[in-house]
Design brief:
With 260 residues, the chain is α/β, with parallel strands linked by helices. Helix content is 48%, strand content 11%. The protein is built from 12 helices and 7 strands. The strands form 2 sheets. Strands 2-1-3-4-5 form a 5-stranded parallel sheet, with helices on both faces. Strands 6-7 form a two-stranded antiparallel sheet.
């Protein structure tokens, strides 16, 4: 008899299959935009609140990643480790709904063409995420969103503009996770367990990253990849890390050049 662990893996595979069968055209469009931005020495800014910070860090920096992406992670919205007490989960979830906070975050950076924005949000409805998307659009940056379309469509808009992230974004990639996120029903337990959005959004992130790298190579601008010592040896791996971080520093120094 199949147990709940197998059921989770089956549901996760269903998400991956849906991404493969329904999202490759939008991933291709997003890869075109991001590769063009990076090839022109621009930045793909990355933003997410709550657990969506996972995918910001999944894109860059880690092994198999490369400069051209600029992670924007606000600890007050994402530091969940303490759960309760100072810097607890309640505070983070409260701040995520404070309209205007997104514009405050954005004022700390300098954006210019050909930059673009990649925003992660499973629900696509909370105020800070919409703030950031609207501000990116106000500054003429194209916006890519990675959301659960099912969850977003079944959720009410929280922002006073009435917008959801799918209304603001130029390109919407569905992480193909069912509304509610949790995938596994267990007899005798009222509520489902086993979130699926981590699987979907991480798969989208790495598929997109891989396609961007391929396009940069085709443009004659191969990226500097953070590479494990397993592939190139310890010394070469250390040198590559320095090269990669130096390249990243050179790319992002403009972003921190002043406040608006």
């Amino acid at each position: 008899m199949q147990n709940a662990a197998f059921e989770y893996l089956d549901q996760a595979q269903t998400i991956l299959d849906r991404i493969r069968s329904t999202q490759m055209d939008t991933i291709e469009n997003a890869a075109d935009l991001c590769a063009s931005t990076i090839a022109q020495e621009g930045l793909v800014h990355l933003f997410g609140t709550g657990h969506s910070r996972i995918f910001v860090e999944e894109m860059f920096p880690r092994h198999g990643s490369f400069p051209g992406f600029h992670p924007i992670v606000e600890l007050s919205l994402t530091y969940h480790n303490l759960v309760v007490g100072s810097n607890g989960q309640r505070q983070a979830m409260f701040l995520e709904h404070i309209e205007g906070f997104g514009q405050v975050i954005m004022r700390n950076f300098v954006f210019t063409k050909p930059d673009c924005f990649l925003i992660y949000s499973n629900s696509g409805v909370n105020q800070v995420v919409i703030d950031v998307a609207l501000e990116a659009k106000r500054q003429s940056m194209p916006v890519i969103a990675v959301v659960s379309l099912d969850h977003c469509q079944k959720s009410d808009a929280n922002h006073s503009s009435g917008n959801k992230l799918t209304d603001v974004a130029d390109i919407v990639i569905d992480n193909c996770t069912p509304a509610g996120d949790a995938l596994v029903r267990i007899p005798g337990l009222d509520d489902p367990v086993g979130p699926g959005s981590t699987i979907g959004a991480a798969a989208v992130t790495n598929a997109l990253k891989s396609r961007i790298a391929e396009k940069l190579v085709q443009m004659g601008k191969p990226p500097i990849v953070l590479t494990s010592a397993i592939f190139i040896g310890n010394q070469a791996s250390k040198e590559r890390f320095d090269q990669c971080y130096d390249d990243y520093r050179n790319r992002v120094q403009r972003v921190y050049g002043g406040c608006q």
